[in-house]
């Protein structure tokens, strides 16, 4: 007898109300931080109330499963054509010889997002039914093309806004690299909560067919 894991290939933007998600989007993260350079004049930025849209178009492009009586391991490859994000930002320090202390609106467009997710779970029984309990979730991601910038810089500092946008778009991949540890940690928290809700309400048998 062989078993296979059943996975949906595309998200549903209408949400999953039975799991407490009336809407899939936007994905909201509380805040992220980046720091460039050291010393008292190093550039630091904080992004708050980050809202990301486009995640519901996710597709599963690869799935590997390792099943045993006491553990389930899943490796998923995911693809998202485009994610758009906006946030409030506040920065301090010096950037390309310009005093970059200020605040305003941040926007970003991320195209060609690829992610790999590893899930480890253990089966357990409740009233004769098997469910899964999440033990570990890890993920990593890459972005092919990035466009991002800032608008509405406080005090109408057009020189600062132009300098920031020039730097941001000239160094977008490097900035993403600086954001990545904090962003990955936040995304793992969001994904873990989502997976835990699914595992708690959907029996193990619903994921696996003979």
Automatic annotation (TrEMBL):
Biological process according to GO = circadian rhythm
The UniProt entry, under Gene3D superfamilies, shows: Haemolymph juvenile hormone binding protein
| Nucleotide-binding in keyword set | no
GO CC terms: extracellular space
UniProt superkingdom: Eukaryota
Q: Which Pfam families match?
A: JHBP
Keywords (A to Z) from UniProt: Biological rhythms, Signal
This protein is called what?
Protein takeout
Family per UniProt? Answer: Belongs to the TO family.
Tell me yes or no: is Nucleus among this UniProt entry's keywords. Answer: no
């Amino acid at each position: 007898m062989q078993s296979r894991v059943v996975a949906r290939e595309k998200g549903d933007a209408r949400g999953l109300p039975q799991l407490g998600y009336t809407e899939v989007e936007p994905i909201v993260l509380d805040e992220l931080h980046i720091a460039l350079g050291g010393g008292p004049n190093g550039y630091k930025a904080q992004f708050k109330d980050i809202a990301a849209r486009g995640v519901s178009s996710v597709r599963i492009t690869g799935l590997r499963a390792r099943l045993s009586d006491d553990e389930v391991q899943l490796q998923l490859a995911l693809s998202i054509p485009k994610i758009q994000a906006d946030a409030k930002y506040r920065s301090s320090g010096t950037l390309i010889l310009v005093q970059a202390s200020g605040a305003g609106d941040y926007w970003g467009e991320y195209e060609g997002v690829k992610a790999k997710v590893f899930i480890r779970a253990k089966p357990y029984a409740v009233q004769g039914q098997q469910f899964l309990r999440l033990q570990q979730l890890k993920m990593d991601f890459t972005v092919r093309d990035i466009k991002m910038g800032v608008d509405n810089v406080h005090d109408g500092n057009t020189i600062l806004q132009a300098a920031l946008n020039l730097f941001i778009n000239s160094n977008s991949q490097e900035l993403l690299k600086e954001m990545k540890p904090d962003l990955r940690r936040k995304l793992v928290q969001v994904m873990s909560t989502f997976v835990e809700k699914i595992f708690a309400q959907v029996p193990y048998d619903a994921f696996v067919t003979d």
